[in-house]
Amino acid sequence: MFRPRPQCRFASLACVALLAILPLVATTAFAQLRGHGGPVRALAISPDGQTAVTGSFDSTAIRWSLTRNAADQVLRFHADAVNAVVLLRDGRAATAGADGRIAIWTPGRTEPDAVLEGHSAPIASLAASPDETMLASASWDQTLRLWPLTGGAPRVLEGHAQNVNGVAFAPDGRTLVSVGYDQSVRIWPLSGPAAPTVVAMPSPLNAVAVGGDGEIAAGGADGRVYFLTGNGARTGDAAAGPRPVISLAISPDGALLAAAGIGGSVAMIDRKTRELARTLVGPGLPVWSVAFLPDSRTLLTGGADNIVRRWNAVTGEPVDSLLVEAAGDPLAAYAGDRGAEIFRACVACHTLGAGQANRAGPTLAGLFGRRIATAPGYHFSEALKRLDIVWTPETVSKLFEVGPAAYTPGTKMPEQRIGSQADRAALVKFLERATRK
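^ thats the sequence. predicted structure below, dont judge the formating
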């Protein structure tokens, strides 16, 4: 579901993803792309399959050469996670962030050509119109905006009752499709002031894709993919897995739909039969983004381990054997520890031990006795730097008793609380043991 902020939106504990601007490290030897300092939240591939752009919780976007398997440029502008990216046919890229802004980039330039502002909450999704004259953005401020790429004020579409998590254009460019946490699919006519067609769904929706034939696919928090005609008539559904679907992509030839899940796998669904054709299984961490290459056989996935992986979508095999390397269980040594189980939701964002690197959030090694926003090698917000807090068992417990918004105002940490005093005590005891240097 998309209630928490995007840094670790399905986590039950603190998965902080602030501004982790880490050095660029790219490999040319293997099919995977390494360079981000946080989970890869967004993926877009150029029509010729030569270039990709990725967005990450580390607040950067990277333009990649897919022929060299190497980074061409790091795009640094956003003040928060980059949740959505689009590549235009002329080579320009659009990036949108949890800071509510959209940046338009020309290849090679270090600053955006234009910045589009208007949303008052994180932008979750971007789409370009088929003729590439407009961008559509979906935001947690419950609105969509249509931005003319030649300049001018955006058109604002209102009606969703909760976060808008996905947006896509119909192939003819006449309608716009949006999905949200309010369990609705909305089909917006783009000519004239007509009201949208609203289709009630059985689950909150996290993602949407539209095929070349106009069929709509919506990914649900219940682990299912729902199919609708371009007019909004439901035509069926398919089970992608037991965990929420958070990203969708339809192959250019229209045969396959990739549904990525918070559980770490990608379901390949045959669009004709609505059946699960195969499952791509990686290291078990959330898969935040998926995109097909033009050959319709190759799929790129962006994961919570900061890596972009390349797969044969037809066989289900990774292109490179290293893509299925074991991630290991960082909490294996704490089996049976109640505090470790409470913390488990955050291992994708935080490391615990001395010598382990920052991830989307800072390492917690040496946490106790450290002043807030002083972990080495991590870029914290100015709001956190101004707080007079030292992390102790009491302050960590207080953080989860009253919630981050009240205790650390200005944080980008998901709003959450641990109501049980016993669970808070178990978590603190675990962290005292696990974070000692």
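The chain has two domains: 6-324, 332-434.
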